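fyi for ur records
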Amino acid sequence: MAFSDSPIGTVVFSTVGRCFYGFDIFSVSLAAVEERRLTDGKSINFNGNFADDDQALVFISERSGSPRIYLTRPGSNSADPTPLPSAPGSLFHDRPILRDGKLFFVSAHEPSDLLYKSWSAVYSAEIGGGDDVITRLTPKGVVDYSPAISFSGELMAVASYGSKPWGGEIHELDSDIVVFPVSDPTKRTVLAKRGGWPTWAGDSTVFFHRESDDGWWSIYRVNYPGESSKSPSRVTPPGLHAFTPAAFQDGKRIAVATRRKDSDFRHIEIFDVESGKFQPITKFLNPEIHHYNPFVSAGSDFLGYHRFRGESAQGDSIIPNLEPVLSPIKTLNMLRLNGSFPAFSPEGDLIAYNQDFDSNPGVTIVKSDGSKRWKLIKDRVAFYNSWSPADKNVIFTSIGGIFQPANSTVQIARITFDASKLDPHRSDIPNVDIKILTKESTGNNGFPACSPDGRSI
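which gave:
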């Protein structure tokens, strides 16, 4: 794209649930099962791995406006974690591993050769060498996720999507477990079809998760080098979901995230492969908080995971109305909205949006710098907003349940407000006029768009 053709302006968008994540990384000592927070409460911090048995941590944080890789050490005098080498121009990094001075990670900075094909690939970088050379380990044209390093550091396992474009699946990606030597990434072996999130026990056993034929997500085991006549063996039983395994190096235990029929929350448990018994870890620490993506220290002394840090925990606690996000185009600003269906006013000074569809439904407007917001409609489910380009301070919206069947009643409403009543000391606007434009008998009418002259929608 030539510079003269670069778009100029601001894009406001939503990321479902992102504003409420509040992730920090925690660990427990398996000798005492006492929880300790390893990250500092800034932004969101997730997908960590221990760098050594002193609980030095390599992890992903979005504190810079995009997911980047950081290193932090318990007891460090530095107030902030250390940024680690990243791929130039990359706006997405994930699943970092730091082993013997070499960093392995996922990045998505090299464009794919097909539409609807992921840019995700695995890379490595030497730490402390001074040149920060980034080496691609995934072959060109191939998509890899979730790298895992064997105990010796000589072998890598990945969940590979191969060279195909995305097939539209969401619930379970059509990826395979692939193994290759770190010294020669071209020598790839498909160890198991249909699998994700691999983890090594030693240099000869790989655990991974997949959805079983009975509908339960389970952990499977396969040996390396594999035998073509042997299928992966199921490790965790039916009756509960088990995800994202992290193996202990003795090969006898794996840490997993579970969802049980009697719980609404995802918890970390340790599964004994030989006895078939589970040991709950986080259920009694934080029973009503989800816990994600366990990882185990090399000496098997510590178990880590990420979770919501808690409303009273030290750290970022205020959700901004608008959050700056790094843009791939320097002339284009990007802002993440705490809400849905944003629409700029014709003057660009206000944004109309829907803050929530359950606990706080209605229509809200916010200053385009995010400094102040006001409620126009309260306690009524509304979605999708469109400003009149011809009439001052007029917004059209949909009143009724979102994404309902055609015979459900959803009505178009015209909202008119007085901009002179935007009091910085109030959260609402008095005397807002709401006029319903469609009859209940006409069924489902949504997603209004106003004509340039303001006469038709």
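The chain has a mean pLDDT of 93. thats all i got for now
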